[in-house]
Design brief:
The complex is a heterodimer. By secondary structure, chain A is mainly α. Chain A has one domain: ABC transporter involved in vitamin B12 uptake, BtuC, CATH 1.10.3470. Chain A is globular and about 65 Å long. Chain B is of the alpha/beta class. Chain B has a single domain, classed as 3-Layer(aba) Sandwich (Rossmann fold). Chain B is 31% helix and 27% strand. Chain B contains nine helices and twelve strands. In chain B, strand 11 and strand 12 form a beta hairpin. The radius of gyration of chain B is 19 Å and the shape is globular. Classes of the chains: A mainly alpha, B alpha/beta. Chains A and B meet through helix 9 and helix 10 of A and helix 2, strand 6 and helix 3 of B.
């Protein structure tokens, strides 16, 4: 494990560089072939204003800059966010299997999306789906909090159980609506529920970016508290913390971030469950070190999985949730066998 | 100076029949006070009231002369450190990181670790003979080493009062004696619960005996540990004589 500060900084640097490089490289992949030199020329022109030596055709420019670039960035943001949320939730619930979707946020978001697609239509244009998904996420988060808190306490097992219960009810509701609704709409909802980065637009990126940054700051500030809560309820109290407050704060931050991410990308499973374990394997469980690594790994992971999702069934887009779940499952089996 | 003062304390989990009642207890600077009693007599509950985990339904808990429940958990944690037997299964922290957790009540949200923090952690680890294990995973330690690491965390907290819930449980005799000697050597006001009465007799200045949520005896080990009391509280016949080398009471159970 990399416990020495120098090696830790080196690791951050390497991961950061790998992420930047991956973002650039991944722009070359997709159903339409764009050679890597072209991609780099387009990037040089767009980012640094360097005019290309070879003429870049407008088609390539719009594919790389208008379609793929926001998609790659959204992938990085979603991956980082889900891994971050998973890491924090695993600490406050003291459950290594906690992940963003366990709290009912994703199924709430899905229900919101189903209602919009099937019944309301595009009431707010491009934003209607994300907006409805976010409202659904928020509603289910409040529901879980209300059910889980009892006489001023908020215990981790009640939180998890309430999350699972709300999740199932929400899922049942959206499945029922899908079953009753018309099939054409159902397939578009299904695609969104399986997760995909196809909704990415430059105009929509600032919101997840801002939320991710805020969440990272809050969680880093709570780093010591997360360590203590992971050690147990009594340890946390004896170290001067109020576990309920920390849990509510982490839970609200997690739900808001997940809500925003899910509303843009659908429910992408396994990232929030798996990457925290990889990160912990690399740097241990001290959260002030763990959180940044976890976020970087999540971003890196999702950028490359999305490359797979774009290319495997090209020109079709494979729902990224299917890819993450498949990779995640295999990964976990490998991890189990190594132990 | 009186560090901990508990007056007329009562506690009940559901607001009905109290599990603790009419408890008066004090711990002075530099003394190790033992809390003994049968299973379910309320030892752990009483300790929890003393480290601000559960709020007494009546009476008061004072720390350094100030009512505990009128101050914040943080204030309390800056003065009281607790050694419990609570750690989760897959605990990914190193020994050093566990010890460093003791700085939590002294640091603000975004404070990093400064040299003072590192010095305190180094000092505590060295004092408990853990320096060589500092980078090891806490989960891989033996039971005795884990207890020592938790004691190191308590030390890093720089407390005025140390609370220990059955610190010698699950330890072999060597580790039991070693740990208690180390606790004694800290010279802190300490309140610890014990199952092993001979250990309590050997290391504590004073003992309190709990039975069914009430204090039934208090005093030096020699005053408290009598055959009559042991029969009355624990329901077991015992032979009590004096330890031939150390002079404290020695208990031999009669089976």
């Amino acid at each position: 494990m990399m416990r020495s500060p120098r090696r830790y900084r080196l690791l951050l640097l390497v991961l950061g560089a790998a992420l930047l490089l991956s973002c650039a490289l991944s722009l070359a992949f997709g159903s339409a072939q764009v050679p890597l030199e072209r991609v780099l020329a387009i990037l040089a022109q767009r980012l640094f204003g360097i005019s290309p030596e070879v003429a870049v055709n407008l088609g390539h420019d719009s594919i790389v800059w208008q379609l793929r670039a926001p998609r790659v960035l959204l992938g990085a943001l979603v991956g980082a966010g889900l891994a971050l949320v998973g890491t924090a939730l695993q600490a406050v619930t003291r459950n290594p299997l906690a992940d963003p979707h366990l709290l009912g946020v994703s199924s709430g978001a899905a229900l919101g999306a189903v209602i919009v697609v099937l019944y309301l239509g595009e009431f707010a244009g491009l934003l209607s789906l994300p907006l409805a998904a976010f409202v659904g996420a928020l509603a289910s988060m409040l529901l879980v909090l209300a059910i889980a808190s009892r006489s001023g306490r908020l215990e981790s097992d009640r939180l998890l159980l309430a999350g699972v219960a709300v999740s199932f009810v929400m899922m049942a509701a959206s499945n029922l609506l899908l079953f009753l609704g018309d099939h054409h709409a159902a397939s578009s909802v299904l695609f969104w529920m399986l997760g995909g980065l196809g909704l990415a637009r430059w105009e929509l990126l600032w919101l997840p970016a801002l939320c991710l940054l805020l969440a990272l700051l809050v969680l880093l500030g709570l780093g010591r508290a997360l360590n203590a809560l992971m050690a147990g309820e009594h340890s946390a109290v004896s170290l001067g913390l109020e576990p309920r407050r920390v849990r509510v704060l982490v839970f609200v931050v997690a739900s808001l971030l997940t809500g925003v991410l899910v509303s843009l990308s659908g429910a992408i499973g396994f990232v929030g469950l798996m990457l925290p374990h990889v990160a912990r394997f690399l740097v241990g469980a001290e959260h002030r070190r763990l959180l940044p690594v976890s976020a970087l790994l999540g971003a890196l992971f999702l950028v490359w999985v999305d490359v797979a999702a774009r290319t495997l069934l090209a020109p079709q887009d494979l729902p990224i949730g299917i890819a993450t779940a498949a990779i995640g499952g295999v990964f976990f089996v490998a991890l189990l066998r190594r132990r | 100076m009186q560090r901990l003062r508990i007056r007329e304390l009562a506690w009940s989990p559901d607001g009905e029949r109290p599990l603790l009642d009419a408890i008066d207890l004090a711990v002075d600077d530099g003394e190790l006070v033992g809390l003994i009693g049968p299973n379910g007599s309320g030892k752990t509950s009483l300790l929890r009231c003393a480290y601000r985990f559960q709020r007494p339904s009546a009476g008061s808990v004072e720390l350094d002369g100030e009512p505990l429940w009128q101050r914040s958990p943080r204030w309390c944690a800056q003065r009281v450190a607790v050694v419990l037997q609570e750690f989760p299964q897959d605990f990914g922290l190193s020994v050093r990181e566990v010890a460093a957790m003791g700085r939590t009540p002294h640091k603000g949200l975004f404070d990093g670790d400064d040299n003072e923090d590192r010095r305190l952690v180094d000092q505590a680890l060295a004092r408990l003979g853990l320096s060589a294990l500092a980078q090891q995973a806490f989960a891989r330690l033996s039971g005795g080493e884990k207890q020592r690491a938790l004691l190191a965390r308590a030390l890093v907290q720089q407390p005025h009062l140390l609370i220990l819930d059955e610190p010698t449980n699950h330890l072999d005799p060597r580790y039991q004696l070693e740990l208690l000697k180390q606790i004694k050597a800290l010279g802190l006001a300490s309140l610890a619960s014990f199952h092993d009465l001979n250990l309590a007799a050997a290391f504590c200045e004073r003992l309190y005996v709990l039975d069914q949520g009430r204090l039934v005896a208090a005093g030096t080990p020699a005053e408290v540990l009598t055959a009559e009391l042991l029969l009355q509280v624990f329901g077991v016949q015992a032979l009590v004589d004096t330890h031939p080398l150390a002079g404290h009471p020695r208990i031999t159970w009669i089976v």
